[in-house]
Amino acid sequence: MSPLILAALALLPIAVVGIFLVGLRWPASRAMPLTYVTAALLAWFVWKVPGARVAAATVDGLVIALTLMYIIFGAILLLNTLRESGALGVIRRGFMDITPDRRVQAILVAWFFGAFIEGAAGFGTPAAVCVPLLVGLGFPAMAAVVSGMIIQSTPVSFGGVGTPILIGVNKGLFGDEAVARFAEQAGHAAWSDFLGAIGLKVATLHFAAGTFIPLFVVCVLTRFFGKNRSIAEGLALWPFALFAAFAMTVPYLAAARFLGPEFPSLLGAPIGLAIVVFAARRGFLLPPREESWDFEPRETWPAEWNGRFEIATEEAAAAPSLSLVRAWSPYLLVAAMLVATRVKWLPLGVWLKSVTLEIPSLFGTDISPKIEPLYLPGSIFIVASLATAVLHRLPASGLRRAWSRSFRTVIVASVALVFTVPMVRVFIESSGGAAGYPKMPIALAEGVSQLAGQAWPLFAPFIGGMGAFVAGSNTVSNMMFSLFQFGVGTRIGVDPSWIVALQAVGGAAGNVICVHNVVAASATVGLLGREGLVIRKTLLVFFYYALTAGALGYAIVWSGTKGWLNAGSMLAAAILLAIGLVILRSRADR
Fold this sequence. Notes:
By secondary structure, the chain is mainly alpha-helical.
């Protein structure tokens, strides 16, 4: 079978997601079973994967879905506990003291706090923390989910203390003779130096593309959730949004340059947060408080904005005995535990990971589902919730209500996840069939590479994004495609390490539209059945990010032979000019 036909077949499961979930707005609980069946039939009848392997991949997906539900439960439990103790009211009041402007609150919580949690834990944890917190502050559930998903871009390549680079790219490239020879010729005496160099390239591309992410967040809020449905109200905050972007990305880039892939998100976010909170308290680059932007009253919100888990302001009334520090202490505890269990030089993470539940060689295949229950963020959330009950002197009846509500929310979320993640695993584990075809993601990428030719740098981030869209993980996308991307870079005669960097950046951007990340984030606030509506709002951000990174990558890798004035640099300039013109026009219309 020709590579192009094989690529078209491999595209079918993704096309089903696009048509039914995004196009026809089916809920994930209906669309994803259809997608799973499509992937399973392709694996069985076209790729001729043994039934035992399809079944093993399905069970592996169910195990991963169980871990996601555990994380969701922990995140919801923590928020419900804060709700019962009155801490949410204190946190809400603390944000109002900084600024009542919802646009700024979204930047502080999603962009900065979310990026820090991403740097510490990864694995979709930022959405599990930030989305419920935004709802607790009074955001519509859908606005909170969209904001939480959009920021799952710039910090993701260095999430989980550098996991997408140190594990994803590392495992994807390590052991290949051509890669080792290239690294040695490039002057990298140690393999870790080579990974650090790729990490710096990744951070450079993110530094450029991530500049406008806070502005995208506020523009999406005002365009889709404001009274006037006006993008201009978001663009009005452009000086502050750019200031907030650089406050994070400058130390982020410096950390990549001087410290390595573990630290850009982990350090850039808190440094930026401290700078921006200090500035916001003094009104720097902000409109007067009386001109602050807010949502319309809750009773006017369309039904599709609301989740089953909504916290009315009166329900989150501040407990008079709680200080702001005590109210925030559960989230500070979560952050501290995530860092303590993820940094390599502390033994706690190794001890927690030693408790493992594994099914080796499931159904006689090389697939071995595994859970590390104590290491999962869900366990950290549960510990923080119990500590909150003690610290905030929550009665036993309040804790029982928090557990009951949390269980009910997770049960509703499980329907979509039990089909979404198994589809992903069948798609990825489709190698080893009697047909002899490469696994579906690689078959799709090879088809695209045949069509792209020397323009491949423009397409490389989209392949990385496709991998993350399907797998729900930048790390998995990098493991699947890094060696393939390196090989394409070598074949077209450019620096292949830049092509790998484009893969990593695209893989990060793909998290913005990843189906099971959207399902998981939506589940934390009970916003299920509207996943397609969320992806419709985040799809433009993904295309902006991947296209910007691709244009810059093209400009860089072909600058030596085509000069700096090439198709990539002109496309990047056109993107920047378009954004500038939109900002100027919005100012003229006000």
